[in-house]
Amino acid sequence: MTDATIKTDLAGEASAASARAKSSAKKTAAKATAAVKKAAANVAETATEKTQVARDYVHDKTDAAIAWSKPKAEAAHKAAEDHPLALALGTFVAGAVFGFLLARNFDR
Questions:
Q1: Domain presence at residue 32
Q2: What is the pLDDT of residues 38-72, one digit of tens each?
Q3: Residue 66: CA atoms inside 13 Å, Cβ hemisphere, count?
Q4: Position 90 in a domain
Q5: Is 4 a residue whose pLDDT tops 80?
Q6: What is each CA distance from 44 to 35, 41, 54, 87, 96, in whole angstroms?
Q7: How far apart are alpha carbons 67 and 92 in whole angstroms?
Q8: Is 93 inside any structural domain?
Q9: Taking the CB of residue 42, how many other CB atoms lie within 10 A of it?
């Protein structure tokens, strides 16, 4: 009797394809992991830079405000001591104008 079955190595081809797929998946996973790590590093670096810029800006503005307001406050205090009636009258007028504008807004 003759054996008419075709002998092929399907199991060997399947295991080779499976090995290739696993190898490809590992490479893709490694690339994805590297991309995520790089993106996380970029985000952290950008956040650090923006925080430093904001910190410098606030520091500069605070220094400028202190330098500008201290002499102005001293001058205003001296003027108030020298002219208390003018200060009272000016405050009254400013309050009246502000009150008028505020009342006008509430009428709408």
A1: yes
A2: 999 999 999 999 999 999 999 888 887 777 788 88
A3: 6
A4: no
A5: no
A6: 14, 5, 15, 53, 52
A7: 29
A8: no
A9: 10
Number of domains in the chain: 1
Q: In sequence order, which residues have a C-beta less than 8 Å from that of residue 44 and are 6 or more positions away?
A: none
Lookup: tokens for 36: 């995520």
SS (H, E, C) the chain: CCCCCCCCCHHHHHHHHHHHHHHHHHHHHHHHHHHHHHHHHHHHHHHHHHHHHHHHHHHHHHHHHHHHHHHHHHHHHHHHHHCHHHHHHHHHHHHHHHHHHHHHHHCC
Domain residues for the domain of 29 are 10-81
For residue 2 the two structure tokens come to: 């003759």
**pTM for this predicted structure:** 0.40
User: What's the CA gap between 18 and 27, in Å, rounded?
Assistant: 14
Residue 77 lies in a domain: yes
For the segment 72-80, the average pLDDT, to the nearest whole number, is: 86
Average pLDDT, whole number, for the chain? 84
